[in-house]
Write a structure and sequence with these properties.
Blueprint lengths: L2 H6 L5 H26 L3 H26 L5 H25 L4 H22 L8 H6 L7 H20 L1 H9 L1 H6 L4 H40 L5 H26 L3 H19 L5 H10 L3 H14 L5 H7 L6 H11 L2 E4 L2 E4 L1 H27 L1
Antiparallel strand pairs: 1-2
Helix pairs in contact: 2-7, 2-10, 2-11, 3-4, 3-5, 3-10, 4-5, 4-10, 7-10, 10-11, 10-12, 11-12, 14-16, 14-17
Length: 381
C-alpha cells in the first residue's frame, strides 16, 4: 500500500469519518476546557466525575426500564450522569467546607464512594441492567453513532460559547481568585459554572470514547500546550490543535497496527507530550539543561560587570580575564551576560549595555558602602 493510499483509503469508510469527526469535536472542547482544569489543578476532578457517572448511568437505565419498559434510553442515562456528576461536586464542596480535609482528599473519598455505589447498584439489579462496564471504561472511538455525534456537537457549541462569553472571568479567577473576589466577581458561581461545563463534557464524551480517553483528552493536550506558551488564549488554541492531532494520528495508528482506537489516540497524545517535554524551547528538558550549563555564579557575573564598568571603554576577553581571579572563566561569564542583555559586542570587544551599566553601578555602590562600613568598624576598634 502506498503512502497516499494509506491516508486516503480509510476516508472512504463512513465509520472512520464519524470517528474522526466525533473524536475531533471531543478533542477541541476537551482541549479548551482542559486548559482551565490544568491551570486550576483540577485534573483529579475530571477523573472523579468520569468514574462517578456510572451511578447515574445505572440509575437512568433502571428508571426507564422499570417505569416504561425501555432499555438503554440514552437521554435518561445522560440526565442520570449529569445528576451523579452534580451530586459528586456538591459532596466534594460540602466535605471541604465543613471539615479540615483538603479538596483533593475529599475528591478521592467522594468519587470512589459514588463510583462504588454505581457498581453495587449494577450488581444488585444485574437482571434488569445490562451495562458493559469495560465498554464504559475503555469506550470505542471507532463505533460512534449519529446520536453520539449530535450530542458531542451540541456540547461543543454550548461549552465553547460559555468559555467565550466568560473568558475574562475564568482567566482572572484561575490566576488570581483573591483579586477577582476583591473586585466583586462571583467566584463561587464561576467555579460551579466551570465545574458544570467539565461535567457536561465528560458526560457527553464518556459514552463515546470511554472514561480513560476522555480524561486523557481533557488533561494531556492542555498540559502539552502549557509547556509551550504563557498566554491562556494561545494555550487553548494549541491544546485544541494537539487534541485533534492526537485523534487523527491515533485513528490512523489504530488501523496500521490493528489495535484499539482509544488506546492508540492516547498513545499518540502521550508521545506528543513527551516530545514537547523534551524539546520545548523555554520549559523543555533540553532547554533547562542548556540554561544550567550556561549559568555562572553570581559573584563571577558581578566581577565581570565591574571589570567592564571600571575599564570605561570596550575591552576584549583577554582584558576582562586579566581583571578576574585565577580560575574564573571570563569567556563563559561574557557569554552569559551577553545572553542576559547586560553586555553587547563591539567588534571583537565587549561593552556594557544600559541595563548592564545600571547593574554595575548598583554593585559598585553596594561594595563601596560595605567598604566604608568595614572601615568605620576598624576605626571603632
Amino acid at each position: 500500500m502506498s503512502f497516499i493510499h494509506f491516508f486516503l483509503d480509510p476516508l472512504g469508510h463512513t465509520f472512520f469519518l464519524k470517528s474522526m469527526l466525533g473524536g475531533c469535536l471531543v478533542a477541541v472542547v476537551c482541549g479548551v476546557i482542559g486548559c482551565l482544569v490544568v491551570l486550576r489543578r483540577m485534573a483529579f476532578l475530571g477523573d472523579a466525575l468520569s468514574h462517578a457517572m456510572i451511578a447515574g448511568v445505572a440509575g437512568g437505565y433502571l428508571f426507564m426500564k422499570l417505569l416504561f419498559g425501555i432499555e438503554a434510553y440514552a437521554p435518561a442515562m445522560l440526565i442520570g450522569s449529569l445528576l451523579a456528576a452534580g451530586l459528586t461536586v456538591a459532596l466534594i464542596g460540602f466535605v471541604s467546607r465543613v471539615s479540615r480535609i483538603k479538596e483533593d482528599t475529599s475528591i478521592g473519598i467522594m468519587y470512589t464512594g459514588v463510583f462504588a455505589a454505581g457498581v453495587v447498584f449494577v450488581s444488585i439489579f444485574r437482571e434488569s441492567i445490562h451495562i458493559d462496564l469495560m465498554h464504559f471504561i475503555m469506550g470505542d472511538v471507532l463505533a460512534i453513532s449519529d446520536a453520539d455525534l449530535w450530542a458531542s456537537a451540541i456540547t461543543c457549541a454550548l461549552v465553547l460559547g460559555i468559555v467565550s462569553l466568560f473568558f475574562r472571568h475564568f482567566q482572572l479567577t484561575s490566576f488570581d481568585p483573591v483579586m477577582a473576589m476583591a473586585i466583586g466577581m462571583p467566584v463561587m458561581l464561576l467555579d460551579y459554572l466551570l465545574t458544570g461545563c467539565v461535567s457536561l463534557v465528560v458526560v457527553s464524551a464518556v459514552t463515546m470514547v470511554g472514561v480513560i480517553l476522555v480524561v486523557g483528552l481533557l488533561i494531556t493536550p492542555a498540559a502539552t500546550a502549557y509547556l509551550l506558551c504563557d498566554r491562556l488564549s494561545r494555550m487553548m488554541v494549541l491544546s485544541a490543535f494537539f487534541g485533534i492531532t492526537s485523534v487523527v494520528g491515533g485513528l490512523y495508528a489504530s488501523i496500521a497496527l490493528d489495535s484499539s482506537g482509544g488506546g492508540a489516540v492516547m498513545l499518540v497524545s502521550t508521545l506528543q507530550f513527551l516530545l514537547v517535554l523534551t524539546l520545548a524551547p523555554r520549559h523543555g528538558m533540553l532547554a533547562k539543561r542548556l540554561a544550567l550549563r550556561r549559568l555562572i555564579p553570581e559573584p563571577l557575573a558581578e566581577k565581570t560587570l565591574l571589570a567592564l564598568f571600571e575599564s570605561g571603554s570596550p575591552v576584549n576577553t583577554a582584558d576582562v580575564q586579566s581583571r578576574l581571579h585565577e580560575g574564573d572563566d571570563a569567556a563563559k561569564a561574557l557569554a552569559f551576560l551577553l545572553n542576559e542583555g547586560a553586555v553587547e559586542k563591539v567588534g571583537q570587544s565587549y561593552a556594557l549595555t544600559a541595563q548592564g551599566k545600571r547593574r554595575a553601578e548598583n554593585i559598585h555602590k553596594s561594595r563601596d558602602t560595605q567598604l566604608r562600613f568595614r572601615e568605620s568598624l576598624a576605626g571603632i576598634e
